[in-house]
Amino acid sequence: MAEGHKRQNVFKAFRSRNYRLYFTGQSISLIGTWMQRTSVYWLVYVLTKSSFMLGVAVFATQFPSFLFSVFGGVVSDRYDRYRVLLFTQAASLVQALLLTALVLCNHYNVWEILSLSVLLGVINAFDVPARHALIYDMVDYKEDLSNAIALNSSMVNLARLIGPAIAGIVLEKLGAGICFLGNALSFLTVIISLLLMKLPTYVPKVNEKRGWADLRAGLVYLKDTPSIGHVILLLACMSLLVLPFTTLLPVYAKVIFNGNAATFGYLNSFIGLGAIGGTFFLASLRPGTNLKKILLVNTFVFGAGLILFSHMNSLPFALLFAVITGFGMMSQTTISNTIIQTSVALEMRGRVISYFAMAYFGMLPIGGLLIGSVSYYLGSPNTILAQGLAALLIGLFSLFDVNKF
Known about the structure:
Layout: H1 2-10, H2 17-48, H3 51-78, H4 81-104, H5 110-138, H6 145-173, H7 176-195, H8 211-224, H9 226-241, H10 249-256, H11 261-283, H12 291-310, H13 315-343, H14 349-378, H15 380-400
Helix pairs in contact: 2-3, 2-5, 2-6, 2-7, 3-5, 3-14, 4-5, 4-7, 5-14, 6-11, 6-13, 9-13, 9-14, 9-15, 10-11, 11-13, 12-13, 12-15, 13-14, 14-15
């Protein structure tokens, strides 16, 4: 009985039909997304043999999201998030089909791939605020919201476990074009799940403010709510200096471990395995648990995992440390998102989530360029070692400010 009760707590957000539909459709789609992401980074590295160009690939996908996500937040707060999400999913499907056609025709270069990555980044700028904010409307019992967010993260990390592993095999056997086609088809599951939902009728909001006034109001709210502001600041620092370590994984797969695309897929998958363990741990936490302290502890775990991974020449041990790294990495976005979603004012939800997205999507591509450039001079192992040390330092600074944080 006790075990059954525990299991019910872990999956209690599934009581809501709309959330079950979303979880099912999005789970399949995210596997396709990770297949595409893995294939894009592998193609870029194979075409250029440059760790710097890997940073450029991250920049091309993520930086447009930083530029436009604040506008995506305004759109999410002003208009029907459900219809916005339908549009962004359809647009993502078209982007994946364009990438598929480009690669299957076998007449492509790195700049064409990067251009389509920029297009996806713009789409994501409007998709992320609407998708995360809509979770609130999908959950019938609002006390299940933090559980829904944790399960959402487990879905993302499960996809990170499965998607790259499939991509590695498909890349070796069938080529990148099939990975991109699989991603395109996976968006159909999300669109179908959205169409099957029964959400409350959308009531248009009477808003006499202009868009710029909404932006200023969001910034003022963030300034006046330091408990949220400190979480977003921590995420921004981690996204700039630590989270872009994944930029260098193709180098580890091909050069350090003398592997192939499958090796690259396994590295990503074991990081995802650790992240899944972390998200199920979060989903099982009792209500009222101090998430900020767990975020702080996992920042130290993240840094330690990177330090252990950095100079490891044995693939089995590297995969073990990748699991530890994934466990700590998971907290940076999952707990930050949970803290924000469970404490933000309803009328500010879309805009604050857009600032959360800016901290992630904005700093991550800049960090990708930075890490790619630094690794050119220091080498990939020393660069990831430095990133692990940076995570420990960020954790120490947060520790001194733990009462505010």
